[in-house]
Amino acid sequence: MENALLLGQLATKVAVKEKNPQQKEALFGVAASAFEQAKKINPRDKRMLYYYAEHFRARGQDENAKALLAESQEQELLWDHYFQQGQYEDARKVLEQLYKDGTKDSAVLRGLLHVAEKTFDREAVKKYSKELIAFDETVENNLVQIEAFLKVGLIKEAEYKLQSFKEKYPSEHRILLLQAQLLMRQGQLEKA
Length: 192
Prior knowledge:
Blueprint: H1 2-17, H2 21-41, H3 46-58, H4 62-72, H5 75-84, H6 88-100, H7 106-118, H8 122-135, H9 139-151, H10 155-168, H11 175-185
Helix pairs in contact: 1-2, 1-3, 2-3, 3-4, 4-5, 5-6, 6-7, 7-8, 8-9, 9-10, 9-11, 10-11
């Protein structure tokens, strides 16, 4: 399985860079064969599904990637595929179904937050970032919340959260970067 995955990844990577159309197709063929072999060994392996879907995307065969992931019923991979393709509404639907089904882990909450950022859904950014921090209050998740607020224009909320973040984690070195981003969003370019 490992060797088939490595061969498939390598052949896909080389094929993407190849200029000669015949060699490109031959390399993609080698990759497809390797991934099919890996799929026969373990059709539910998440790494295989992920890399095989990447292979299809590299070939411009998004429908095949979507079909592979839908058939596998690996919803975490399916929403990520939609997200990577800029199909945020489809990604949101898959994530919301996972959320409703009780999969409220940090990956699902972060996914919902990223989709909300991309679609500039301020209310969803507030909701899912709050839930993410309630679920797992870490330095990273607090930073993700502040950055999300800044990206969608929730400047006052970002300012408030940044202030409490500074009080809670005074030695965190990324505070300066966030302060500069906040000042820029407030139009204070000289201070930033």
